[in-house]
TrEMBL record:
Belongs to the ROK (NagC/XylR) family. InterPro entries: ATPase_NBD, ROK. CDD domains: ASKHA_NBD_ROK_FnNanK-like (cd24068). PANTHER family: BETA-GLUCOSIDE KINASE, ROK (REPRESSOR, ORF, KINASE) FAMILY. It comes from Paenibacillus taichungensis. This is ROK family protein.
Amino acid sequence: MNILACDIGGTRIKLGLCNTAGDITEYQEYATNAIRGGVQLIERVMELMSVYSKYEAIAVSTAGQVHPVDGSIRYANPNIPNYTGVQVKSILEERFHKPVMVENDVNAAALGEAWVGAGHSFNDFICLTFGTGIGGAIVIERKIYKGFKGSAGEFGHMLMHPVIRSTDTMWDSMYENLASTTALVKKAQEIDSHITSGKDFFAKIDVGGAALETLLHSWVCEVSRGIATLIHIFNPPAVIVGGGIMEQEWLVSRISDCTRELLLDSFKHTEIIPARLGNKAGLIGAASLFLFHQDHVKKNVAKK
């Protein structure tokens, strides 16, 4: 069985065929051009999908909160304008006449890691991805825990410090405003205006002097506070951290050491480990919905 898997992100669209072993073939990657808006984005996705053949189903991993029943976008942040409300599942089913499943990108990545990645040996774990923001997923008995309305795992919106409201919908003290890659880069630009990405930051950390090292220490502490909070709540055997910035094993080790200092003794056995599947985790996890998780919408998830 081949599944056409698609990962829709704020900056990139990824496509490939996934087989029953979790292997991705015919992989392609394209710019999202998200500024054009959600409807045009899905039109672009369908255009890119049309070159594929010999598949039995379509699996979509996408940015935004996904309705667990109808596969529509319940909420998307302004990175993809007018994406909220787009009926992704029904649009694709009508166009391609194939069964379609749609899942949030971080949930899909967690399912991929559970299948053939860093979570393979764990029944339960927490997954965090660090990038533009911070995404989260809760895996219990190798399934995504959805919560009351299907939106559990918005760890990036945890309030970490004395609450200061900056706009009607945003809080300065949100976890992702303190510990995302974006947060690190924003602070780094106050030291060196040429740093525009996490990659730039870590390329300069060894030669950037005490200021960059002090910033890194502060950022690691922010990351660790959030992880420690989640460990104290869920008591998982593992926390898997992903995103391009976490591909550096020394950084994950440093975060693990810092987190462990914040934990009660009975919680110190939780492993903090890097994700293994990189930018294909969402594709693999979305495909796994058809292979293992067709009952992934739990009965206790409230419908509209």
